[in-house]
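Example record for the data management plan.
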Amino acid sequence: MAGLRRWRATAEPTLRHIIDQALEHNWDVLRGVARNWEDHPDFVRDFKRHAWELEAPTDSPAPEA
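Corresponding structural encoding:
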C-alpha cells in the first residue's frame, strides 16, 4: 500500500482515482479482518479495553524465569 501512496502523488487524475479505489478496498479488507478478531476471546480485552463493560485492566503476572 505504501507504493500505491507514492504513485498517487504523481499520477494522472484517472489513474489517481483507480489508486484511491485500491487503497479504499485494502482499508476495507483490513477493517474486516480486525472486526473478525476483535470479538475473539483471546483478544477481546486488547480490543475492548476502553469499553465500559469490561473491568479495569489487571497487572499480568511476572513471567517465570
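Summary line stored alongside the record: The mean pLDDT is 74.
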